[in-house]
Design brief:
The protein is mainly alpha-helical and 144 residues long. It has four helices and three strands. The chain has one domain. The chain is 55% helix and 7% strand. Strands 1-2-3 form a three-stranded mixed beta sheet, covered by helices on one side.
Length: 144
């Protein structure tokens, strides 16, 4: 991808992330029934079954009563970052792993281990914004 297309992708992603904040506030995630499973991250209401025999489950597992809402957000972020295209088959594991880690860290920071749905979604959204800024910082800036 050329540098100008890459920069346009970052700008488009920034715009989409800004709109996503409003969509979270408007609770657009309501009615979503899909549970995320991909890029070594699984989101659900209960822990996945123990691995059996030769098969080892190394997925990051996010267990939350807000699993459908969080899955909705992962799908939205996937679409934003794939469409631009800033995430691909090579870096998707780091991207989704970091999103999952941000969800886990938020839930670990609250007394009940669950927290607030909106704050959880915003914590993950914030990590996506941090990742986008890191991507931007890797582009050499043109000096005049």
């Amino acid at each position: 991808m050329t540098e100008s297309k890459y920069i346009k992708g970052i700008i488009d992603a920034q715009d989409a992330l800004s709109l996503l904040i409003d969509r979270i506030s408007c609770k657009e995630y309501k009615g979503s029934n899909y549970l995320w499973g991909g890029a070594d991250v699984v989101i659900g209401a209960s822990s996945p079954p123990e691995s059996k025999g030769w098969w080892s489950n190394n997925d990051i597992s996010i267990v939350t009563p807000y699993c459908k809402e969080l899955s909705w957000l992962f799908i939205e972020l996937r679409d934003i970052f794939y469409e631009t295209p800033l995430i691909d088959y090579l870096n998707k594991y780091e991207f989704f792993g970091r999103l999952a880690d941000s969800a886990s860290k938020y839930m670990e920071s609250v007394d009940d281990g669950i927290g607030n749905r909106a704050v959880l979604l915003l914590a993950v959204h914030n990590e996506a914004e941090i990742i986008l800024k890191e991507i931007l910082s890797t582009i050499p800036h043109i000096e005049n």
